Amino acid sequence: MSITLYVSPQGSDAWHGHVPEPTADGFDGPLATLSEAVKRVRHLREQRHTTGEVTVRVAAGTYPTKRPIALDAMDSGIRFVADGETVIDGSVEITGWSTGKANGKTCWVADIGALLTEVPHPRSLFANGERRPHSRYPKTDWLTIEDAPDVPMDFGLFDGASRFIVADGDFDDAWRNPDDIEAVINHLWIEERMPVKDYDADRRRITSTHRSIFTLRNHEWMGSAPFARYFWENVFEAMSEPGEWYLDRAGERLYYLPKEGETPDNTSIRLAVTTQLLRLHGDWRTGQIVRGVRFEGFTFAHTDWLPSEGWGKWWDPQTPEHTWPTKDSFRHFNTNNLEKRSAAQHARFAAMPQAAHDLPGAVGKGAARRAEARSGWASADDR
Asked: What is the DSSP letter of 315?
């Protein structure tokens, strides 16, 4: 027997979900979340109340989620159908704006202390659905590292470093919250992100919490400058262009410079709070494969991202570290793969050597066959 469950913004996860609208007596109606619909399908299957495909019809509206909708092998054969404009949203709207000043310009300021207890390092802000950039210095040009004293002269590609020397005037120790500023280093085929841990003004030496995965010195084939180029991100004193934003974690404040015509009344400012909206993950080792899951007509919106920790494992921030498989090909990271080595003992790299290939996508899929998401109709082959 095949069944249909219903989900709606007017629903409740305390209801049964077998009817599309709330009943007149208010005692039953559609469910409120897709995650609860998944739980109900599992329960119905365990009780043998249904076999085969199950359809979950989702009414038009926005469904905010702070955690991914997770499906595994037992959820195979569920078809999710959007009835109208249906958005799975990984953000929260920022409200309660007041007017402030940033570098002589009028900006909006919001208290986000409560949100930071849940998401300490949000990186993605959207205004009316458009991604907005962090403040950066310099705006369009690049700075160049002056020296990398820990890198040997006979360096190899993987002779990374956690310290480098900046040119005179390229960093100001009077900048607000320097430990919230990142050096974004673009070289070779990757982007490295090195958060500032300490600045020695006398030596003009930056120490980062992370070590660069590649050398900060340049071979002749790596560029004309002897050292890597970079810019600073999340600098309050550099917030000057409309659309830029700055996160003051110490002060628990969010600053935004509105674009022309934007007002708090006509502009929805949203801060992403999750890196993934949907996970379809089975287990190849046990043969538990996700099969035949379909999402039709959905929009997935407003997700965040995390910089990769970069050690020699298949990194997945949604699962415990001890479950991460080792990347056997990265033998130069073997010290990070030793048994009983805690996360605090791992070397923290500023990037992965193959760009961002292991960053979690908004929709994650593993050990799945014909797991599909229709919005137009995009399908994923077996992996």
From this structure: -
